[in-house]
Amino acid sequence: MDEDNITILKIGGSVITDKSADDGAVRMDAIERIAGEIAGFEGKLIIVHGAGSFGHPQVKRFGLKGNFDHTGSIITHMSVRKLNTVVVEALNSAGVNALPLHPMACAVSENGRIRSMFLEPIKEMLYNGFIPVLHGDMVMDTELGTSVLSGDQIVPYLAIKLKASRIGIGSAEEGVLDDQGKALPAISKDNFDRIKDCLGGSANTDVTGGMLGKVLELLELSEQSKSTSYIFNAGNEGNVACFLKGKNIGTAICGVGKYGSNLS
Ligand SMILES: Nc1ncnc2c1ncn2[C@@H]1O[C@H](COP(=O)(O)OP(=O)(O)O)[C@@H](O)[C@H]1O
Ligand SMILES: [Mg+2]
């Protein structure tokens, strides 16, 4: 069902917020620049953004990984909503018909993994020319009460359910870096064992696994859907536009054999 030609773009919290802050700090210049780069795009697009300093420090403060807490869940959800409002307003100011879509209101997890998600609004939005904007969020969890739902988990879930044809993860590095700090051209299950020691969590507060978390989610996606995703630097001007124009940038995460067996 590739005729739908859906693109999913994730914009990292590391790009649109100051992730070293203890509480929500936006990077308005980055948000406005990226909104401008998205504005020219004409296809069906779903945006997912990270929580950055609007979510990770709050989750840490209330011990929400492994600990159920009403107040912490509410404060974290309300905080990431604020970031989502800023992003959606910037997109609309740039001429993008963006609408907010909060995972708390449409997804339920089981032990931290999405169990179900009500996708009809997304499908109808896309059909009618809107761009849904989801984000990392607290969601209800059948086992844990509430749990953290990372944007990095939302992307592959939607990619499979909606048969997306193009997936891009914009973060704050040139791609997945090797031990020399150089972006790897491609990662698949062929070379993952050789490069996995280079992968770590985030340099800043990130409760959802940093770069290793992203690569694991996308490798799983490449197994299930045979699709290739790209991890690239959305902090560099022009890269989001470049990805949306169909160019392959950063590190490709792909199925076995897609880039040959000579990956370093
Ligand atoms: N091999 C690697 N290549 C790139 N980044 C890595 C690597 N290992 C660990 N990281 C860390 O992961 C971070 C990206 O993850 P994260 O902070 O969660 O980004 P985002 O906010 O976009 O989700 C990088 O900024 C870096 O600090
Ligand atoms: Mg992250």
Describe this structure in words.
The strands form 2 sheets. This protein has an 8-stranded mixed sheet with strand order 3-6-2-1-9-11-12-10, sandwiched between helices. The chain has one domain: Carbamate kinase. 46% of the residues are buried. The protein has 10 helices and 12 strands. It has 264 residues and is α/β, with parallel strands linked by helices. The longest helix is centred in the first third of the chain and has 24 residues.
What separation lies between the terminal Cα atoms?
33 Å
Listed once per kind, the bound small molecules are: adenosine-5'-diphosphate, magnesium ion
Largest sheet strand order: 3-6-2-1-9-11-12-10
Structure class: alpha/beta
- Percent range for β-strand residues: 15-25%
* Major β-sheet annotation: 8 strands, mixed
Count of helices?
A: 10
CATH architecture heading: 3-Layer(aba) Sandwich
What integer is the average pLDDT? 94
CATH fold label = Carbamate kinase
**Weakly predicted, low-confidence segments:** none
Order of helices and strands: EHHEHHEHEEHEEEHEEHHEHE
Helix content: 25-40%
Cα-atom Rg, whole angstroms?
Answer: 17 Å
How many individual domains?
1
General form = globular
Name of the CATH homologous superfamily: Acetylglutamate kinase-like
According to DSSP, the number of beta strands is 12
CATH level 1 name: Alpha Beta
